[in-house]
Design a protein that fits this description.
Elements (H helix, E strand, L loop, with lengths): L20 E5 L2 E10 L6 H18 L3 E11 L6 H17 L4 E8 L4 E11 L14 E4 L5 H9 L5 H12 L3 H9 L4 E4 L4 H13 L1 E5 L10 H6 L5 H10 L3 E3 L5 H7 L8 E5 L1 H13 L6 E8 L5 E3 L1
Parallel strand pairs: 3-4, 8-12, 9-12
Antiparallel strand pairs: 1-2, 2-5, 3-5, 6-10, 6-11, 7-10, 8-11
Helix pairs in contact: 1-2, 3-4, 5-10, 6-8
Length: 316
């Protein structure tokens, strides 16, 4: 790809796997990301909350703090009352207030189905910038939210989950990664990525390739939302998760006791998932203590970064 005229101010080019675009500005770095999607729940207010939290996640994954955002929305005005759009935007506003981030405007277009998200601009001090290609051999991997969002969201569409499971998955999605980012900054993480559409395996693979390492993952340490395994056993798995598993299959070695539905669970496509933090062994306990202090949903050590091997990821 042809170089951008301002590439000298950019920390990396288009070839990077990083979560946000970043631009040097004096002693700070501007981080910017854009994300939007169609509803994964029926309630418009909840959808707005989820979409906003998801849009913020890329900023937090790089150790950043959001400064402001712009709404982006598509809406079928001929088919749905304008109150639905109002509820979506109010849900987004609720999350923006929790993030202490003003929404300074935005744009809505007429569309066949609702879509919502945000363009978020944030900043990070140079010494706190965390990328996804800078993990070190011997680092431990800590995951800050349980997996299973994609599988349970499919269960929602098929009306096969109970109210508690619904509430659990919504709480997981609208939980901001701000506390995890703060904990990461306080404890000198080496690398980080947020777990979203490519699932744990896809985003970890990007980290391994970028860092020129392999990873060993302990399956029994991976946290899952309740009901995830039961749904996966019954074939309730989104197409995106199946594609994720197919994509990484040649680069992942699964222990013989990891069943097919379990492979799909760790390849599950997430919406507004947690952070995967790569950190030195000497700093990991302080990180875990701060994750607990920040009220994070998970703080499990799920694996370690190893010397580059034949496969990029080993699930044991």
């Amino acid at each position: 790809m042809k170089k951008n005229f301002c590439e000298s101010k950019s920390a990396f080019g288009f070839e990077s796997f990083d979560d946000s675009a970043i631009y040097y500005l004096d002693n700070n770095i501007i981080v910017q990301s854009l994300d939007f999607f169609t509803p994964i729940v029926d309630d418009p207010y909840t959808f707005g909350q989820i979409a906003a939290a998801n849009s913020l996640s890329d900023i937090y994954a790089m150790g950043g703090k959001p400064l402001f955002s712009l709404n982006i929305a598509g809406f079928p005005a001929d088919d749905l009352p304008i109150s639905v759009l109002t509820d979506i935007l109010n849900g987004g506003q609720n999350i923006a207030e929790k993030a202490q981030m003003p929404i300074l405007g935005g744009h809505t277009v007429k569309d066949k189905e609702p879509k919502y998200g945000m363009a978020v601009t944030g900043k990070v001090e140079k010494e706190h910038l965390v990328k996804n290609n800078s993990a070190k051999e011997g680092d431990l991997l800590v995951l800050t939210k349980p997996l299973g969002i994609g599988i349970i969201s499919t269960g929602i569409k098929k009306n096969t989950i109970d109210k508690k499971t619904y509430n659990d998955v919504v709480e997981t999605m609208i939980h901001l990664n701000s506390g995890a980012a703060k904990a990461m900054n306080l404890n000198k993480a080496n690398a980080c990525t947020d777990i979203t559409g490519y699932g744990l395996l896809g985003h970890l693979l990007e980290m391994c390739i970028g860092s020129e390492l392999s990873a060993e993952i302990y399956y029994d340490k991976i946290p899952f939302i309740n009901s995830t395994e039961n749904l996966a056993k019954n074939g309730i798995v989104p197409g995106g998760s199946k594609k994720n598993l197919s994509y990484v299959s040649g680069k992942v070695d699964f222990s013989n006791d990891i069943k097919e539905h379990q492979q799909l669970m760790i390849a599950d496509a997430q919406t507004s998932g947690g952070l995967l933090i790569s950190i030195s062994e000497k700093n990991v306990q302080n990180l875990i203590d701060e994750l607990k202090n920040q009220g994070c949903l998970s703080y499990n050590i799920i694996g370690t970064m190893k010397q580059k091997n034949e496969k990029r990821i080993y699930i044991i």
